Amino acid sequence: MRHGMLNTDDVHCLQSLSRPLHYSDGIEPSQLFPLRREVESCNNSRLKELPGPKHNYPAMDHAGYDIYGNPIERESAELLLDRINALSIISLKAGAQVMLIQNVEQGSLVNGSQGLVLDFITTHDAQERGIAIAEQTTRRGQDDIPISDGSTVSSEDLRPLNNNVFGRQQLWPLVRFENGREMLCPPLDFTVEGFMGNVEARRTTSQG
């Protein structure tokens, strides 16, 4: 077999291994694709197979500033955000398999950790039930943004690129991860920063 030549017994041996695989935690291995559109096509196809209502999460996008404190133009900010892993809209259902694209718990739940969506609940419900809530582990962009002349620009002055907002009663995905940890996954910030640490663009969205 290692010489690239198979006899009948070899073929029968390999064919005997063809069987449905069962994953006790319900989390299947991830498929890898070279293009984002292929990833999205696969995700949408798998999502359609699941029963139940679909929850859509449009991102909140903001344009920031360059190292001189000049506003980043809308078109440039949109191009910057188009290059990051966080999508402009995420659609999920209970039973959907998801993957973190940002660290939320160092050494435990990190970029690449996978899980299954169990339910959709509010942050208030999660607190009442003692369920952990994912929090930002990287800089949230709430601090003042440094620029080249030594001054700063307030991150509160980032300019919105859309009208999307998140309400207090918004339902967020409750996820059970492969290590057994259950956590609510509300929106987190994903930023594109210049070499001075200035936020050029920011996307706030749920992970999935």
TrEMBL record:
InterPro entries: Pif1-like_2B_dom (IPR049163). Residues 91-120 form the DNA helicase Pif1-like 2B domain. It holds the Pfam family Pif1_2B_dom. This is DNA helicase Pif1-like 2B domain-containing protein.
